[in-house]
Amino acid sequence: MPEELVTIITPRPEKGFVETEHVKKLTERALTYIKAGYPIHLSGPTGCGKTTIAMHMANKLGRPVVLINGDEEFGTASLVGGESGYRKKRIVDRFVSRVLKEEESMSKQWSDERLTTACRYGFTLVYNEFTRSRPEANNALLPVLEERILDLPSGASGESFIKVHPDFSAIFTSNPEEYAGVYRSQDALIDRMITIDIGYYDEETEIRIIKAKSGIDEEKAKRIAKMVRRLRESGNYEYTPTVRSGIMIAKAMAKSKAEIGDNFFKQVCYDVLSPRIGKGKNGELDTKIVVDDLLKSEGLDKPVIKIVKKKGKEMKGRRKVRKW
């Protein structure tokens, strides 16, 4: 068989992965569907953690992982494989000393692509943002998910099809159809999957994610998470702020040793949130006013006041405000 150049990911627990009760129940439900023989489709908006959860589920399955990221340039060959060159064979016959006989032949070289590799060896396929690929490119998946057979084009190492390995499983992710750059998937393909709609994480999960990814303390993570969630719930934005925004702010704070309410913290909030706010859905928002109002409403516009006890008396002190 020709050498196959397909990257295989060895499943392992992700460092800092947060598994709250919400995430645990979601994972258990999805794994039950997979064990029943159905592929899983995680559908949700950008930044809701679809890919992270998909890789977490793949890790739980314990099989090597083949990852595909959807692309509108994909064709069927991008998933199944194709003829990538030729193999040359030369035979020199010197059996009779005074007679030289030479024979040359060339044959086409077949290379398996990622879908074929996963089906052949029983790996877990994670097809990320599969609706970014054109629907016709994904037609090869239809018999794989239903009849457990992968049809191969002529010239595929003498095979016209392969039977899908019993350990093969598939996890798909996608954004909603109204997103730019997304194609409507075939009804026949969606009908073969169990779709789980994933919204944004609950507040407890977002707090724990921000804390785990940045290393800041829980109180700061809680206040940052609440701020981002308040902006998301307000509707005052052009692009939805996600938990990634909270992680960015928290990481910047951790690296700079800034405190909530100081000048550096407020500047970070402007830098991270302003592109998400933009001009708003109606094109009328002023990003500075929106961020200022947000910080003020959440009590994040001033340094934290702490109580210092000294000789039986309580003294109010402010943390130093960093100037930048």
Task: Outline the fold blueprint.
Blueprint (H helix, E strand, L loop, with lengths): L20 H15 L4 E4 L6 H12 L3 E5 L6 H5 E13 L7 E12 L1 H8 L2 E5 L12 H6 L2 E8 L2 E5 L5 E6 L12 H4 L3 E4 L5 H12 L3 H17 L8 H14 L6 H15 L9 H11 L7 E6 L2 E6 L6
Parallel strand pairs: 1-8, 1-9, 2-5, 5-8
Antiparallel strand pairs: 3-4, 6-7, 10-11
Helix pairs in contact: 1-2, 7-8, 7-9, 8-9, 9-10, 10-11
Order of helices and strands: HEHEHEEHEHEEEHEHHHHHEE
Find the CATH superfamily of the largest domain: P-loop containing nucleotide triphosphate hydrolases
Could you please say which CATH topology of the largest domain applies here? Rossmann fold
Residues in β-strands, percent? 15-25%
Task: Give the overall form.
Answer: elongated
Contiguous helical run count: 11
Strand segment count: 11
Describe this structure in words.
There is one protein chain. A hairpin with a 2-residue loop joins strand 6 (149-156) and strand 7. The protein has 2 domains: 21-80 and 114-197, 3-Layer(aba) Sandwich (Rossmann fold); 203-318. The protein has 324 residues and is of the alpha/beta class. The chain is built from 11 helices and 11 strands. The protein starts with 20 loop residues before the first helix and ends in a 6-residue tail after the last strand. It is elongated, with a radius of gyration of 27 Å. The protein has helices at 21-35, 50-61, 76-80, 114-121, 141-146, 187-190, 203-214, 218-234, 243-256, 263-277, 287-297; strands at 40-43, 65-69, 81-93, 101-112, 124-128, 149-156, 159-163, 169-174, 194-197, 305-310, 313-318. Helix 1 (21-35) packs across helix 2 and helix 7 crosses helix 8. The strands form 4 sheets. Strands 2-5-8-1-9 form a 5-stranded parallel beta sheet, with helices on both faces. Mean pLDDT is 85; it is low at 318-324.
